[in-house]
Design goal:
The chain is α+β, with helices and mostly antiparallel strands and 171 residues long. The chain contains six helices and four strands.
Length: 171
């Protein structure tokens, strides 16, 4: 009698040419996490975050060029919402809204689009993902959150079309 357990770990590498603060990376992780959670249909949480501190100085001494080494730093943090999320053990690809293969050809474009809309649709994202990351929320609030998210989305996307009812008719 035996039990077979297979695990798949996925890593995301983020590189930049500019120095950035930890808060900028934390915001980036937040949006990446939401994007992946949207596809998976479940809350996801990073298991490990490792930072790299690299010294980009190149020294030239006596005709010898040397490049200084990189230091890897484990970053410890407590992602918000993890304590409320159920412990999901299995993610099945046909239950997902989309898988990587669906977006692989234009992954960068999808991700860029997600980030470009993040500020404009911040309230929509927060309302929707609060339901995903806090699944034990009072049931009537689920409907209210979704209705408010849809209403906010519609207002943000179609606000150029003006009002549906004149102020006189509204009163």
């Amino acid at each position: 009698d035996f039990e077979f357990i297979a695990k798949q770990l996925t890593f995301i590498q983020i590189t930049t040419d500019e120095c950035r603060s930890y808060n900028e990376y934390e915001r980036f992780f937040y949006h990446i996490r939401n994007f992946i959670s949207l596809g998976v249909g479940q809350p996801i949480f990073p298991l490990q975050i490792t930072g790299v501190v690299k010294d980009d100085t190149i020294s030239k001494s006596g005709g010898i060029i040397s490049y200084h080494h990189r230091d890897f730093i484990d970053i410890y943090y407590s992602p918000s919402g993890k304590e409320f999320a159920p412990n999901y053990k299995q993610i099945i690809s046909y239950h997902m809204f989309f898988v990587y293969d669906d977006i692989a050809d234009n992954f960068e474009a999808y991700l860029r689009n997600w980030f470009e809309k993040a500020e404009k649709l911040k309230t929509v994202y927060n309302l929707f993902f609060s339901l995903l990351y806090l699944p034990r929320i009072y049931r009537p609030f689920v409907f209210l959150n979704l209705a408010q998210a849809l209403e906010t989305y519609h207002r943000q996307i179609y606000k150029e079309q003006g009002e549906f009812v004149s102020k006189k008719d509204y009163q």
